[in-house]
Amino acid sequence: MGRAARPCTLYTSSRPTSSQTFPLALSRIPYQIDQIDVRSPSVNHRGQDLRIPGTYNVIPFNPVVVPTGSLRTVDHDEVDEADEDPEGIQALMYTAPTLDKNVTDNSLPFVLHCYSQWTVASIFEPLEIVHGIREHAIQRFSSQDTRYKTILMANVMKGFAQDPLIDNKRMSILSYLAVEVQKIGCSYLTKPQPTSEQDRQNAMYILDYALEDIATNYLEIKVLTLQTRTQSTFAVMKSMNCIAPIFRRACPDLPGRPINLPNIILGDRIGLRYFACADILASVLIGIPTCFQYEVPFSLDLCNRVKSYQSFQSIQGVPDQLIMFFAWVNSLCETPGAGDNPEVVAWAEEILPQIKFVGGETGDPVLRICRMAIQECWRLAAYIYLYMALCRVDAHDPRVVRAQQNMFV
Question: Distance between CA atoms of 367 and 50, rounded to whole angstroms?
Answer without folding.
Answer: 35
